[in-house]
Amino acid sequence: MKTRKPADVPGDLESSRRRFEQWRRRRRGHTPIPEALWAEAVTLAGRYGVSRTARTLRVGYRSLKERVARETGCLASSSPLLGEPAFLELGIPSQAGAGECLLEWEDAAGAKMRLHLKGVEVPDLVALSRSFWEGLR
Fold first, then answer.
1. Is 80 exceeded by the pLDDT of residue 14?
2. Residue 113 phi, psi (nearest 5)
3. pLDDT digits (tens, 9 = 90+) for 74-104
């Protein structure tokens, strides 16, 4: 497994990693991780994702995922917080006599977006296009 350099890890995640390591050095036997550290891990998982947080803090992915699900009240299989894809439907009101178009975007990495629109103003299309391209960064 490839480990990240400290420069690649955000400051708050790196600080938490150091606290986990300090606890590991001081603990006696197989004592469980303190709840305060788990709470910190759950918060960071909400910010950076379960996989990255579990890997950085060296905690079990499933254990962290279950704690995040309990804390947020979300089912693990449907939570965008846990890295699952999310779907958003935009309800755009139709205008009488307005045109219709089909738009498709695709970047070099293969990310795609396809829209079939009826009655959308040009400024709305510009904003929608901008949000797609900025979301890929």
1. yes
2. -145, 130
3. 654 444 444 555 555 666 555 555 567 777 7
Do 13 and 44 form a contact (C-beta atoms < 8 A)? yes
Residues 6+ apart with CB under 8 A from 131: none
Whether this model's pTM surpasses 0.70:
no
Polymer length in residues for the chain: 137
Residue 75's alpha-carbon distances to 6, 26, 78, 79, in angstroms, are: 32, 35, 6, 6
Q: What is the pLDDT of residues 42-66, one digit of tens each?
A: 999 988 889 999 999 999 999 999 9
* Long-range CB contacts (within 8 A, 24+) of 55-61: 55/1, 56/4, 56/9, 56/13, 56/14, 56/16, 56/17, 57/13, 57/16, 57/17, 57/20, 58/17, 58/20, 59/20, 59/33
DSSP state of 81: G
Confirm if 100 and 107 have CB atoms less than 8 A apart: no
* Burial class of residue 25, CB neighbours in 10 A (0-12, 13-18, 19+): exposed
Ordered by start, the domain boundaries in the chain are 6-82, 100-135
